[in-house]
């Protein structure tokens, strides 16, 4: 399974359209794929009154072996969405987890891969192991990415 997290639906629309993803709505499909089905009292769902249409805590789209979760802007929203997904659906060693989105860069229509990621809050730096273990360097430009907790005006 490929699990993609994106802050804004607008950022993810290219993927949603390209792969023909549909909004995730049917908890019965979870059971078919061997995952524990959602129950009415699970925090997976938000609902104001019993009997009303239930909606996901975070909007999610899917097709075949791809799921895309819309997290909302900011590190706190992203952390909540990733935690929610992993708690409710689980993740295995065979799953690929990606963050997909837009950021400022030098070139229009360039693809960048986070070769070094710095957290603006604590200045910790991370070097993703996928960058070190694959030929992805040949397919995209390595970039230094700085994460922030609030959108920069």
What does this structure look like?
This protein is α/β, with parallel strands linked by helices. Helices cover 24% and strands 27% of the residues. It contains four helices and ten strands; from the N terminus they run βαβαββββαβββαβ. It has helices at 9-18, 27-32, 75-89, 129-133; strands at 2-6, 22-23, 45-46, 55-56, 60-63, 66-70, 96-99, 112-119, 125-126, 141-147. It has a five-stranded mixed β-sheet, sandwiched between helices. Strands 9-8-10 form a three-stranded mixed β-sheet, with no helix packed on it. The termini are far apart.
How much is the average pLDDT?
75
Largest sheet: 5 strands, mixed
Radius of gyration from the CA trace? 17 Å
Strand content: 25-35%
Number of helices: 4
Q: Strand-and-helix sequence, N→C? A: EHEHEEEEHEEEHE
List keywords for this structure.
single chain, 153 residues, alpha/beta, 5-stranded mixed β-sheet, 3-stranded mixed β-sheet, 10 strands
Brief digest:
The chain has 153 residues and is an alpha/beta fold.
Topology:
Elements: E1 2-6, H1 9-18, E2 22-23, H2 27-32, E3 45-46, E4 55-56, E5 60-63, E6 66-70, H3 75-89, E7 96-99, E8 112-119, E9 125-126, H4 129-133, E10 141-147
Parallel strand pairs: 1-6, 1-7, 8-10
Antiparallel strand pairs: 2-5, 3-4, 5-6, 8-9
């Amino acid at each position: 399974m490929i699990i993609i997290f994106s802050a804004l639906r607008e950022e993810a629309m290219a993927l949603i359209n390209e792969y023909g993803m549909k909004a995730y709505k049917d908890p019965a499909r979870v059971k078919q794929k061997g995952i524990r089905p959602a129950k009415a009292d699970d925090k997976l769902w938000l609902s104001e009154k019993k009997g009303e249409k239930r909606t996901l805590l975070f909007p999610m789209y899917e097709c075949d072996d791809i799921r895309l979760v819309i997290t909302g802007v900011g590190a706190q929203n992203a952390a909540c969405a990733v935690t929610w997904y992993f708690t409710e659906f689980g993740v295995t060693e065979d799953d690929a987890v990606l963050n997909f989105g837009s950021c400022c860069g030098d070139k229009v229509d360039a693809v960048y891969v986070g070769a070094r990621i710095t957290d603006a809050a604590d200045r910790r730096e991370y070097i993703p192991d996928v960058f070190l273990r694959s030929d992805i360097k040949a397919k995209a430009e390595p970039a230094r990415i700085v994460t922030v907790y609030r959108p920069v005006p």
